[in-house]
Amino acid sequence: MLADQVQAFLKSPEALPQVTLPAIEAPSLEGVQVIVHGPPELDADTLQLLYQQHLERLAPRRRLAVGEFAEPGDVLMVAMGVFTLEGAALPFTFQAPVELTAGGGWLVAEVPAALVGRTEGELFEVPVVFPDDWPAPWLRGAHAVFRIRVRSVERLDLPDADDPQLLPKLGITLSLNGLMAALRDQWIEERSDELVAAAEHTALDELLGRVDIPIATEAVDAQIWRYWARDEGAVILELGGGEADLHATLASWLRSHDLRRQVERAYRLAALLSAIARRSGIEVRPQDLEVLIAEGAAGAGVDPDVAARAFREDPGQALLLADRALQRRIVRHVLDLAEVRIVSD
């Protein structure tokens, strides 16, 4: 049964055979030209939103026990997906974890409104009509049902916005002006990272156009299966979906032209980077791993030494980390040789 296969994969993802990449000759890295568009200016409304989100991240949270019910403003972590009115799962709509605020704003207003009064572990359905600005055009105006399982409910203890001791109570030592300047600097740094990522993507696309890389259909199908099982298949099982839901959504994933193009690009890109690494003698250095561990620890809010020890004790995660570090070194090598121009819109 497909459900058994998904559950086995979720327990041991490494048990599936790994994809074998085709051996190719690396193309020339000369003459790569990249144009990226600079970010928009940071406006006052966006800065205020960043400020509010920062305060909420720092606010103490208490996880409610089973039987304690969500009130407006509580933060719920949920798994969710969309079913037709007849009960069939709709492909590409299942996701977890999703963080929503009870009674807060969202594209489909019925969903956060229905979170009020819910408790951890609860499974329920919310009838909805998809709005005209829903990201997936094929769902706009459609009548359907969101099925939601509550994974956790947390209550924020956020001091009053007018409290003169608001920032110190949250452990913030900066003044209000200092905090706003820090948030602005962080926003600029994040936009800079996005520019680098856009430049890398463009440069690699140009290199992919310079080399013929055979695509193994079986490898693409296998990778789509992994993505589907990890993302949609797992959530369908969590929400009580059956074999018919699993088979129907998997078939849609395998037939999706957009998804196949994305996976094919990733497959060709892996072969390209492997060829560049072989020709240029690029290897992972200890400091490359240290940087990635530090970045990951900072993002997760954990001690870097604790994160490093966790990677050393988990061979599978250590291999993934080394692979990411190698890919970063190769991509930066490509970008160092490219001509990059940033233009303003």
CA-based gyration radius: 23 Å
What is the typical, i.e. mean, pLDDT?
Answer: 89
CATH topology of the largest domain: Trigger factor, domain 2
Number of domains: 2
The CATH architecture of the largest domain would be Orthogonal Bundle
> What is the class of the largest domain in the CATH system?
Mainly Alpha
Described by strand count, sense and barrel closure, the largest sheet is: 5 strands, antiparallel
Number of strands: 7
Overall shape: globular
- Write the element-wise H/E pattern from the N-terminal end onward: HEHEEEHEEHHHHHHHHE
Beta-strand fraction estimate: 5-15%
Q: List the total number of helices.
A: 11
Q: Approximately how much helix is present in the residues?
A: 40-55%
